[in-house]
Design brief:
Layout lengths: L2 E2 L2 E2 H11 L4 E8 L6 E9 L1 E9 L8 H21 L4 H4 L3 E2 L8 E2 L5 E6 L4 E2 L7 H17 L18 H14 L9 H8 L7 H7 L6 E3 L8 E4 L5 E4 L6 E3 L1 H12 L17 H15 L5 H5 L1 H22 L11 H18 L1 H13 L1
Antiparallel strand pairs: 1-2, 3-4, 4-5, 5-8, 6-8, 7-8, 9-11, 10-13, 11-12
Helix pairs in contact: 4-8, 4-9, 5-11, 8-9, 8-11, 9-13, 11-12
Length: 373
């Protein structure tokens, strides 16, 4: 018997039984990766030990869990059909939802908590930080394939579970509001950071304006394209499947490319105080872009391809504005473990933005070479 924070083993076993009727639950182990939902690995016995993933959905962050699960169901069922058509292994290449005893993918416990479950992908792993270009190539290939398989899916059928999640115009307006409110009087101490952000006001509107004008196609987007949301084969290191579909929503393919670059090419930690350590690793950039474009070059529009380097900068800038706004408001959204951590996070993003601006000719050269190869 084990205890998992506020959940006892007996409690978790009862939740697990809902997704494994007739099975013996041998153990439930907490997975400490992730910061929003509570995740557990369930071991069950029926002839041989098998596992599945069980999560408690954080409905303070995801206020419409029914819509979230509907989005996830629509997308995974579509992916299963496409992978089957292509002769792939759907149980390994697509996140597979386990249904509860009543046939639903979302289970509400007697105490009101909400639970879901997925098949455990055996002999695969995730990495929390990129350690070599090959990992980013695999991530680029995985997210690119995800996009390509879904290129004909009617994105308007999905619900924006977090409205304006990657609407940089709205994020910028939120920063301006935080500067105006300045509840803790921190603005004067970070004026150089504020000036850096305000100087890029016009850029902040570009992608959303193009989407609003329908000059960019509305697509299914993952919206959280970090390396740890790709499962890699434990033996070969090759990408197996894309996971964590909580933020799958309508958006632009540029969001997914840009956010992956933002998180993947930084040579330092996200909250590194020493900005001299923060730079854009061009080898990593090229590795991800190569994997991504190999999968999407034929399904992307010319304008989308043209805007890829700009999108990398904009998703990085967006993240920086969010960190800076939270610092000004008293660190109310992003969890901090030391004073000034959100400010350091903002500054690392802005340093990357400045580097991407200086490197723009090189980024465009890389893209053109990849498109010709």
């Amino acid at each position: 018997m084990i205890s998992n924070g506020e959940f006892t083993f007996d409690y978790l076993r009862e939740r697990a039984k809902v997704f494994a009727p007739g099975r013996t639950i041998a153990n439930v182990l907490r997975n400490k990766d992730g910061h929003i939902n509570d995740t557990f690995i369930v071991e069950m016995i029926r002839g041989e030990t098998r596992r599945f993933v069980m999560q408690r959905i954080n409905n303070r962050v995801f206020t419409n869990p029914q819509a979230l699960m509907r989005n996830m169901t629509l997308v995974t069922e579509y992916l299963r059909r496409r992978v089957t058509e292509l002769g792939g292994d759907v149980n390994r290449e697509v996140l597979t939802l386990r249904r509860a005893a009543d046939g639903q993918v979302l289970h509400q416990a007697p105490d009101g908590t909400l639970w879901r479950a997925f098949t455990f992908v055996e002999d695969a792993l995730t990495v929390q930080r990129v350690t070599c270009p090959e990992q980013l190539y695999e991530a680029g290939s995985a997210f690119g394939r995800f996009q390509n398989l879904l290129c004909d899916f009617p994105a308007q059928e999905l619900v924006p579970v977090i409205p304006d999640f990657h609407n940089t115009r709205v994020r910028f307006e939120a920063l301006e509001a935080a500067i105006g409110e300045n509840p803790l009087g921190r603005a004067a101490e970070v004026q150089a950071d504020i000036d850096f952000a305000l100087a890029r006001r016009q850029d902040a509107c570009v992608l959303q304006d193009l989407l609003d004008a329908e000059k960019l196609p509305l697509r299914v987007t993952h919206n959280d394209t970090k390396i740890n949301n790709v499962m890699l084969d434990a033996s070969t290191g090759q990408a197996v499947c894309v996971i964590d579909l909580d933020t799958v929503m309508p958006g632009s393919i540029l969001f997914d490319f840009g956010d992956a670059i933002r998180s993947g090419v930084n040579t330092a930690e996200e909250d590194e105080p020493d900005l001299s350590k923060v730079r854009v690793d061009l080898e990593y950039y090229q590795a991800f872009a190569r994997g991504f474009l190999e999968q999407t070059r034929d399904s992307m529009t010319e304008l989308e391809r043209e805007l890829l380097p700009f999108a990398a900068k904009m998703m990085t800038f967006e993240c920086g504005t969010r960190f800076l706004a939270d610092h000004l408001l008293g660190d109310t959204y992003f969890r901090i473990h030391r004073p000034g951590q959100n400010l350091d996070r903002a500054r690392t993003q802005f340093k990357l933005v400045a580097e991407m601006e200086a490197l723009e000719p090189e980024l465009r050269r890389i893209q053109k070479e990849l498109m010709r190869s």
